[in-house]
TrEMBL record:
Domain Response regulatory: 1-104
NCBIfam families documented for this protein: eda, PRK05718.1
One GO molecular-function entry: 2-dehydro-3-deoxy-phosphogluconate aldolase activity
Descriptive protein name: 2-dehydro-3-deoxy-phosphogluconate aldolase
Catalytic activity: 2-dehydro-3-deoxy-6-phospho-D-gluconate = D-glyceraldehyde 3-phosphate + pyruvate
Biological processes annotated in GO: phosphorelay signal transduction system
Family designation: Belongs to the KHG/KDPG aldolase family.
The protein's annotated pathway: Carbohydrate acid metabolism; 2-dehydro-3-deoxy-D-gluconate degradation; D-glyceraldehyde 3-phosphate and pyruvate from 2-dehydro-3-deoxy-D-gluconate: step 2/2
Domain of life: Bacteria
E.C. number(s) listed in UniProt: 4.1.2.14
Any Pfam family the entry gives: Aldolase
Organism: Pseudoteredinibacter isoporae
Quaternary structure and interacting proteins, as annotated: Homotrimer.
Length: 208
């Protein structure tokens, strides 16, 4: 099994983390891990992304930490230097994907169409993020793609909630789903890590 497949199958849900306050990084990651979600995607959407990856790796070595919203080759380099074990991108460019391959770091490039998926397959990449999942047709699209492109495996992300996650996870070509539903803004503002842990526990128990 490839490393990216190991990561995708070690947890049904990959939480998509946005860090607005660096002090939240470790307690938030701890709550997710305690709830049973050990694969974490820390996005580079805010200025704290890289520092958060470094801190979580240092303090919670049992977490499998990846970088999300990786959109350039430079982001890929910086993420690996910060300790990211895998990369996730909302879409893909040749420059980004070729750099990740050269660095030897697993990457889940974002695709939304069969042509994009075929482009990645031509580079030897069979594991993909399907984004923005719900907005581009959701499960129906991945069921349809499974016919002509059965070798692909997906992590749909975008607009997914626990009910939808169950349906996605029941589909053969879907190994896990990504989402931010367990990280509600109000809970983060209140530093209500117990609430986040309990939503993480529910997510970790989802199965299709
Ligand atoms: O930041 C990125 O790289 C993205 O591609 C976007 C995220 O994956 C989605 O925003 C998560 O989806 P929601 O669960 O709808 O919040």
């Amino acid at each position: 099994m490839s490393r990216i497949e190991e990561i995708m199958t070690s947890s049904p849900v990959i939480p998509v983390i946005v860090i607005d306050d660096l002090a939240d990084a470790v307690p938030m990651a701890k709550a997710l891990l305690s709830g049973g979600l050990k694969v974490l995607e820390v996005t580079l959407r805010t200025e704290h992304g890289l520092a958060a990856i470094r801190k979580i790796k240092q303090e919670l070595p049992e977490a499998i930490v990846g970088a999300g919203t990786v959109i350039s080759a430079e982001d890929a380099e910086n993420s690996v230097a910060a300790g990211a074990e895998f990369l996730v991108s909302p879409g893909h460019t040749d420059e980004l994907v070729d750099r990740a391959l050269a660095l030897g770091v697993p990457i889940l490039p974002g695709v939304a169409t069969p042509s994009e998926a075929m482009k990645m397959l031509a580079k030897g990449i069979r594991h993909l993020k399907f984004f923005p999942a719900e907005a581009v047709g959701g499960l129906k699209v991945l069921k349809a793609i499974a016919g002509p492109l059965p070798q692909l495996r997906f992590c749909p992300t975008g607009g997914i909630n626990p009910e939808k996650a169950i349906d996605y996870l029941a589909q053969n070509n879907i190994l896990c789903v990504g989402g931010s539903w367990m990280l509600e803004k109000g809970d983060i503002a209140d530093k209500n890590w117990a609430a986040i842990e309990s939503k993480a526990r529910e997510a970790a128990s989802l199965a299709g």
